[in-house]
Specification:
alpha/beta; five-stranded mixed β-sheet; 21% helix; 3 domains; GMP Synthetase, Chain A, domain 3; six-stranded mixed β-sheet; Rossmann fold; cytoplasm
Length: 427
């Protein structure tokens, strides 16, 4: 099954909690704080695996969670950090945040990695909070929650050469005779519903990847037929091979076919026409093909190289393959939306800065505090210890929460809620 688009959920592992502990050892005067830090949570990491060609595995598993870090221990022992959770993806995978639409990663070559959900920071043990003024603190931190996201994965087939053309012009047959691929071939439109890939070995022993892509029809750039399902895959190719039924077996004019397909490519993204293009005049074994080829060459005016072939009888293929290989040697891949840059592969994008907190009024007239920073501090506070709660209130004050509540009209005795925790506001 070929799958080229899925939505999944990822969550980094939570950091391990720090510990409150004190030394109780013989010959150690007064002991001292000895609570260790927790371990960091494991991140969820996507890694390109060259052998994969589809996102079908994500159809059966849509939730990916990193392992949590180990909690800190006594005697100053730190908890183990969790290893990253590495998820293999096929080359050509684009990763987007499903909620914001932000591009997170564009993974192309084997072994490339992208951190898509960071593991949480480890909580600190009470050893870390010792000061001359407070040499025996009873404060520790909980581990930071791991980052969680809804992601949208899109696969754009990664091939050096893409075969384009109307349905039933012989693209699948051509692929089957120049590679070991065995696409479905039949005498009806849209036999090819998903891209097929194969490796071509030229007569002079050069090789490249060729993709037989679903047939285009007029209006594809607007979503007609397979529409964008096809066109997104042609973006990755470096050379476009335009296959034309030169015999006009379905009553269409070959030159008119050529213009319509190029118009659809241009409407989808005008820069597609900047790619090198080779015209393959197929079905030359059919009646009328020779006459049509003469007329076609006059109309095209030597703008593109034209190769007369018959995929069915396997004639004229060698020169075509050599020319494609020559074009590939002088053509580099570059994204369609911008000129190539040294860092064209986006490995990780940090989130845009968000407000530290927001204040709203709940339906029950309770003041509600929300925001990523304030919720992170809340999750990392150990509410079982009074000194930790006191520290949390100081952190809120330093963020300006007290003053912001006063400015919004909060009064003594009002209830304030953070997630599910409620406390009384004191002015």
């Amino acid at each position: 099954m070929f799958v080229d688009g899925v939505k999944i959920y990822v969550k980094g592992g939570d950091g391990g909690d720090g510990m409150v502990a004190f030394r109780r050892e013989k010959f150690v005067a007064n002991g001292g704080p000895a609570g260790g830090d927790g371990g960091k949570g494991g991140s969820v990491v996507f890694e390109v695996e060259e052998g994969l060609r589809t996102l079908v595995d994500f159809r059966y598993k849509r939730h990916f969670k990193g392992n949590p870090g180990e909690n800190g221990m006594s005697k100053g022992m730190h908890g183990h950090g969790a290893p990253d959770y590495v998820v293999p993806v096929p080359p050509g995978t684009i990763v987007k945040d499903a909620d914001t639409g932000e591009l997170l990663a564009d993974l192309i070559t084997h072994g490339q990695r992208a951190v898509v959900a960071k593991g949480g920071r480890a909580g600190r043990g009470n050893r870390r909070f010792a000061t001359p003024a407070n040499p025996a603190p009873e404060i520790s931190e909980n581990g930071e929650p791991g980052q969680e996201r809804n992601l949208e994965l899109e696969l754009k087939v990664l091939a050096d050469v893409g075969l384009v053309g109307f349905p039933s012009v012989g693209k699948s047959t051509l692929l089957s005779v120049v590679t070991a691929a065995r696409p479905k071939i039949a005498d009806y439109h849209f036999t090819t519903l998903t891209p097929n890939l194969g490796m071509v070995d030229t007569p002079d022993h050069r090789s490249f990847a060729m993709a037989d892509l679903p047939g285009l029809i007029e209006g594809a750039s607007l979503g007609v037929g397979l529409g964008h399902q096809f066109l997104k895959h042609i973006e990755r190719t470096r050379v476009i091979v335009h296959v034309i039924d030169m015999a006009g077996t379905e009553g269409r004019d070959p030159y008119d076919d050529f213009l319509k397909i190029n118009e659809e490519l241009s409407q989808y993204n005008y820069r597609l026409l900047e790619r090198p293009q080779i015209v393959v005049a197929n079905k030359m074994d059919m009646p009328g093909a020779e006459e049509n080829l003469v007329t076609f060459k006059e109309q095209i005016e030597d703008k593109y190289p034209v190769f007369a072939v018959s995929a069915l009888t396997k004639t004229g293929l060698s020169n075509m393959l050599l020319e494609i290989a020559n074009k590939l040697e002088t053509t580099e891949y570059f994204p369609l939306n911008e000129e190539p840059t040294e860092d064209q592969i986006v490995m990780y994008k940090h989130e845009a800065e968000k407000p530290e907190f927001e204040i709203s009024r709940g339906s029950d007239a309770v003041w509600v505090l929300s925001g990523s920073e304030i919720e992170r501090l809340f999750a990392m506070t150990n509410f079982d210890r009074e000194v930790s709660v006191t520290r949390f209130t100081r952190q809120l004050r330093s963020l300006g929460v007290d003053q912001a509540l006063r400015d919004r009209g909060a009064k003594d005795g009002d209830t304030v809620r953070i997630i599910e925790f409620e406390f009384e506001f004191m002015d």
